[in-house]
Amino acid sequence: MKRISAFLLITLLFFSAFLDANILFAAELSANGMEYIEVRNEKNERVKFSRLILGTDHLAQEDWYGPNSRKITEQGINELLDEAVRLGINLFDTSPIYVGDIEFRLGKWIESYRQKNPGKKLYTLSKGGFPFDLYWAKKLPAGENAFCLLEMLKTKGIMAEGYTDLPNVPNGTYASRLFGSKELIIERVSEELGHTMKNLKTYPDVYLMHRDDGDFINFEPVKRSQNSVKTIMEALSSREIREKYTFLGWSNWKPHRITRSLALAKKQTDLAKPVFNSPYFSLFEMSERAIHAGGVQVSHEDMQDENFLKGIKMMPYSPLGGISILDRPEPCWENARKDARRKYAQGDPYWKNVYHAIFTCANEERYNRVVRFTNDFNKKHKTSYAVDQMANAYALAHKRTDFLVIGPITIEQLRRTVAALKLSKMLTREDLDFLYYGNE
Fold first, then answer.
1. How many CA atoms lie within 13 A of 159 on its CB side?
2. Cα–Cα distances in angstroms (integers) from residue 290 to residues 2, 214, 367, in the given order
3. Residue 21: Cβ-neighbour burial (10 angstroms; 0-12, 13-18, 19+)
4. Residues of CATH 3.20.20.100 domain(s) within the chain?
5. Which of 96, 290, 371, 404 stands the most exposed, by the fewest C-beta atoms within 10 Å?
6. CB 139 within 8 A of CB 165
7. Residues 57 and 126 sit within 8 Å (Cβ to Cβ)
8. CA 108 to chain CA centroid, nearest Å
9. Cβ neighbours of residue 383 under 8 Å, at least 6 residues apart?
10. What is the pTM of this model?
11. Nearest residue to 418 (alpha-carbon basis) of 88, 112, 40
12. Which pLDDT does position 13 carry in this prediction?
């Protein structure tokens, strides 16, 4: 599980998202070009968050990609976080399962930054709801687990009858944390949230359930009915959990479950109202195999529909954010695919999914198209934007992208990403359709 991100996960090139003219009018603009959008919860508590949200998933991961490991230092991490604030970012995305104890490191940095800058408003976004990673645990979690999961574990010879130990469980095998009664979910999520509060030294301002209810064996979903949205929301709205976050949201939840959650919150005033939805969204779509177990993506057409999941802020993540896996010598796509194939052949569980999810013929065509489009755009407008900035701008320019989680690991990448906000305003609906479809 520690190899799997949740929001921003591989490193291809881009991320970002943009609003239509009416939404843009409501977004505030800072002196350095950062945009801010106000969100509010069922208690009418209001905060203005930066449209770009800094993801920390790979900031402290040394063996992220390529043959040579990066050298990670506390100073380097802190300098990038400092620069993010200077550029106007005020919301930082993290998780207790992210690599390199980054949630703890982020908490230390925020505490130090606030001491030096007592008037500066900084906010954190963390995640819960991760299924239990049985590959690392080697046993089932205490409490109730889905009957279908238990039967599949027995059928595949992973678990013996009458036992809960899993000595030979394959990677990518997970048991849901959101399965069972309201009381069981409260217990499981509270334990998870306790780690986050210890790392951050306070509660997270935004708390996302980073998976819906579901089980997986070797990254393949176990077919069963899901726990009711109502039960999950009642657990997350209980006093034990609700007092430990300000804004609730979903990550990698399917649209019909999100719609149900909004309807329930409207009907039952004692439920926390979901504010954010964070799906995968990129010019480079996932294939039928997601980049991680339980990954849910939205499409180009979805994000161009101003009525899509209306009533919740869309905060997509992308495997292209900031540290492009396409940052390779020419031919970029071919060399990136070879490197990814090498990691896959070595048995890396993360790249086992990413390789097949991203390096498709359709995505290769889109890559070649965005390269040509960027060159033509620069000639026409006398600009010098890079391909990764164009791909970021593509995501930002969609009508339903309110916020975007980004994943740069260097200051240079961070600055390029923030500059994509300006570029996104120059793209038309026709440009976005061409980048996605080509000349149809």
1. 20
2. 17, 14, 19
3. exposed
4. 21-129+179-437
5. 371
6. yes
7. no
8. 22
9. 377, 423
10. 0.91
11. 88
12. 34
Q: Concatenate the DSSP letters of all residues of 65-132 into one string.
A: SSSS-----HHHHHHHHHHHHHTT--EEE--TTSGGGHHHHHHHHHHHHHHH-TT---EEEEEE-PPE
Q: How far is CA 294 from CA 67, 254, 290, in A?
A: 28, 10, 7
Strand partners, 174: 133, 216
* Helix residue spans in 87-209 (DSSP H): 102-116, 134-137, 147-155, 182-200
CB neighbours of 154 closer than 8 A, spacing ≥ 6? 160, 161
Residue 336 has a pLDDT of 87
Q: Would you state the structure tokens that stand for residue 46, as one six-digit string?
A: 């209001």
Residue 79: Cβ within 10 Å count: 13
Q: Which two tokens stand for residue 22?
A: 């009416």
Spatial separation of the C-alpha atoms in residues 80 and 311, rounded to whole Å: 33
Confidence (pLDDT) at 329: 80
For residues 285 and 43, what is the distance between their CA atoms, to the nearest angstrom?
A: 37
Q: Which CATH architecture has domain 21-129+179-437?
A: Alpha-Beta Barrel (3.20)
Give per-residue pLDDT as tens, 398-417.
999 999 999 888 899 899 99
Nearest to 14 by CA among 427, 440, 419: 419
Residue type, 90: N
Nearest 5°: phi and psi at 111?
A: -60, -45
In whole angstroms, give the CA distance from residue 412 to residue 437: 30
pLDDT along the chain (440 residues), means of 10: 36 34 47 89 97 92 68 94 97 95 97 94 97 96 97 96 93 97 98 97 97 96 98 98 98 98 97 98 93 94 98 87 65 88 86 89 96 98 94 96 92 92 97 94
> How many angstroms separate the CA atoms of 113 and 9, rounded?
26
> Which token pair is 184?
């069981």
